Amino acid sequence: MLTMKHIKFLLLAITGALFVSCDSDEFLNPLPDSAIVADTFYKTDADVFAGIIGIYDALQGVNENTESSSIRFNRGIQLEYLLTEHRSDNTRSKTLEGSRADFHRYIVEPENIQSEDYYQSMYEIIFRANSVLSYIDNADASNIAAYTAEAKFLRAYAYFNLVRLYGPVPLVTSVVVADDKETLFTRRSLEDVYGQIVTDLQEGVSNLSNGSKSRASKAAAQGLLAKVYLSQPTPNYDGAKALCEAIVTSGEFSLEPNFSDVFYNELNDEVIFAIQYVAGNPDESQGFSSEFTSYKRQGRQDGLNIVNPNLIQDFTTHGGNRTAVSYAAFGTDAQLPIPENAEVIKFLPEGSDISDILNPSYGSSPANAGNDWIVLRYSDILLLHAEALMRGGDTTNNAAIDSYMKVRVRAGFDAVSDRPSVLTINDLLVERRVELAFENHRFFDLLRLGVANEVLSNHASEKGYTSYNIRRLLLPIPAREINLSDGLLTQNPQ
Length: 494
What we know:
The strands form 3 sheets. Strands 1-3 form a two-stranded antiparallel sheet. A two-stranded antiparallel sheet has the order 2-6. Strands 4-5 form a two-stranded antiparallel ribbon. It contains 20 helices and 6 strands. Helices cover 46% and strands 4% of the residues.
């Protein structure tokens, strides 16, 4: 199977020429010269395909841990954990200094550089998708439907991230001229944004096929749409249920028997959609593995992803065999019943050997790691299936409990004695927390299940984060975008 890692190398030169750096003020819109490039480039099916791969390149982002990328922007999803995990009750930064530490303390301001970069990165994905769609008719007739669905899947994914983090956002579905500020900067309603996401993903469900785990597929569209149905202002429980069951009954995915293999055996049977990286290549590697790895173990910084003690308590009771793969404590901290400064180890660079703190198996520098980032996997779908059934009104539904227990049994729990007779919201939240820890799901789970303010206000009070309030569940619109809009783009209440 030709994976994204192979395809990217084949098309790197082409996509590099097509999509220029977004150093201008108008990142939502192509620069005049890049628009000309697009107009002259998209002439053949191969050109359109190269444009599709360019969208993935934007999603992948640029590794900031390398000298060659130090002045480049668009980190893609590589900093997403700051905006999600760090604003949940899962992880925090050990330090209280710097803009990265602002996320776990709920003091993110409109000028925060990491939030600005993420916002810009998502719109770069959207721009590239819109650019490809503008010239989609130049593809071979036999490929137009699939290429269109793939570009729209990636656009929907970017908008889904934006709407959950920033609320109503500008909805740009075509390439527009630079001075069309009305389109570029007018915030649209949640219903409008979610409506576009649903429409885009429905096209993916209809026109994509399975076979790739590193590109958009039918199952990836089904899984993402199921999550959208459960997240939108008026949930569609029946729709989410049907989509999850379609993935299950396809027979194309299964739980990995060994939990560790999910993360260190790339593109395994559990993976539905993953963003691929290549170790050792500054332009194709990722930096989050080094961010998760402390300085003592050759990481980029010391303590950027410290595990909160209340998550460790959930792991102690509900983690099973997932615990040893997810976090570890070192030194004197390891002797505590509940470690205070345990570290994320779920994405250790190129392996999971932590037996030697000073000389881990992944070598002396994890800055150019190649671990894939898993967006959707089968256990997530099973738990979403249980959620759709339970939130649809049936807390004793055997099918819901069956899906829930499949994940629990893989973790080492007994299929009979550990089976609940009633499935609760808290059961789902705890199971998703330990199963999907550090995979950027927790914050969104709390929002979707309607307990974010309750859980996070208690967490903030416990940690002494006095700046938390319910308005902080939405990130502020970056100040740069407010300024560029000439007053059209309004700010979230803070």
